[in-house]
Amino acid sequence: MYLTKRQEKILMGEEGPAKARALEIIVRVGESLGADKLIRIRHAHVSGISYLNIGEPGLKLLEELADTGGRAEVYTTVNPSCIDLSGESLIIDNSVADKQLRINKALEKMGFHPTYTCIPYLYRPPSINEALAWGESNAVVMANSYYGARTNREGGPLALAAALTGYTYHAGLQLIENRTASVRVRVGFEPGEGDYGLIGLWLGENIEDIPILEFPKPPSYYGLKLLFAASAATGSHGLIVVENVTPRNTYRVEAEDRVTIEKSMLEKYQYKPGRDESILGYLGCPHLHPGELYQLAGMIESYERVRSGNALLLSIPLDYYYTMTSEIAILRRRGVDTAFGTCPIVSRLRGEYDVVLTNSGKAWFYLQKLHGFKVAIASPREIVRAIMEK
Amino acid sequence: MGIIIPVKVIVDGDCLGEVLLVDRRISFYGEVDPVNGVIRGVNESVKGKALIFRGGRGSTVGSYIIYGLKHYGNSPSCMIVSEAEPIIITGAILADTPLFVALDYDGLVSLVKGKPGGLHARHKQGEKHVELEEK
Q1: Measured between beta carbons, which residues in chain B are less than 8 angstroms from residue A48?
Q2: What SS3 class is residue A69?
Q3: H helices of chain B, where?
Q4: Is the domain A271-389 a CATH 3.30.499.10 member?
Q5: Which residues of B touch A53 (CB under 8 A)?
Q6: pLDDT tens track for B87-132
Q7: Which residues of B are catalytic?
Q8: Nearest to B65 among A57, A156, A161 (CB)
Q9: A186-211: per-residue pLDDT in tens?
Q10: Domains of chain A: which residue ranges?
Q11: A5-174 has which CATH code?
């Protein structure tokens, strides 16, 4: 691999041990993936920061990097952690707060922005063909497919190494020839709000190559957000081209195969909760966009409160605690549980419920897999109606 | 003189240890307990061993587990794999654990299986091979 003089100096430790180690990771991984050189990135997004996932080893490593001079070389955001940072959620279990706060302190010491969200594009929308190094699969697909930027599906430690050096390897989705859609997937019906997650689940499970998606009508931004997240959970997509959405000149098409998704193909993901079952409603996977939270608060305002035995949980970025106080107040008064800077996929939950109702295909997948919940998919409107009373 | 196994060095360093063969891909996150160094299902500790396995799989948290093995004093002496992928490479660099790709991995596996009495592996920094000796 070609390295510049400065990169060689970093490897020799001239800019400190943390940066040397981080760059060595990127160089060695890049070599194994056939990269010819390193490229500069503009934004790193570090996933894998929940204490419940990375445990003591992760905590120790992050503290060691922070204490040996590891500092963000580029704009860096971080994924949700395992605790509710408002401390007010009754559903998110904050019992490992001490450990998680040590991780957060190390991250912030390294100069990472305390976003604690899986939608980093909210803070810095990527530009077309801009190089990024992002962990968190839903954000990766959004960056590549909606914004036309370039990032591989990095693991947490690699995104961390990119943050500390400002470099990534020139391979994979950083190269236009690897951004070629090879199968045309037509959505054969007009999707409603609850359908995007289902389409994403099917796509991730059934299509291995990069698809180009065609919709009968332009898909909604919030819908695509759900679709990409679900697809990245059940599959390994980093790029899903969407016709008339993905910016031109950020991908190529060489598609001969053609598939049509019909509504009947999505039935296996659906389940209707019984009348006597206690329901945990969950919205915010990926974290709710400010627009989504605003719409939801408007919808919930006409209800009295959450029916006893049920609960409604929303997961959102920490910032909204300060910026969306009116909406949060409306929701709280009606018994809605808001969790800031976390989500049920990276945390532990308190309380027992028969079934989880969510609009998220990604949450559908992980809440069954990680927590053994029975999970069903519905639109936000259906979820609110099932859980709240007038 | 033992048997010479040619390797591609990914992370260099001295290695001296008993060979432990786990001929499959390992998800360090979930399959290896860093606190006692044991691979679940195999019930053997990797501590001080020359660990031969196909490669990594699963969660990228696996890199932190390899680092965790070092933290708890349970690092293998080196890792010899068929394919070096990002999880293993990252973990090896973080933990300073030597990592080699065996140029003929399948040949190495049959060689190890043919010596039920066990083998020792040796590598000196700078060399392009691992030397195996019968116990």
Answers
A1: 60-61, 64
A2: coil
A3: 28-31, 62-71, 86-95, 105-113
A4: yes
A5: 29, 59, 61
A6: 899 999 999 999 999 999 999 999 999 998 999 999 999 999 999 9
A7: 59
A8: A57
A9: 999 999 988 999 999 999 999 999 99
A10: 5-174, 179-268, 271-389
A11: 3.30.499.10
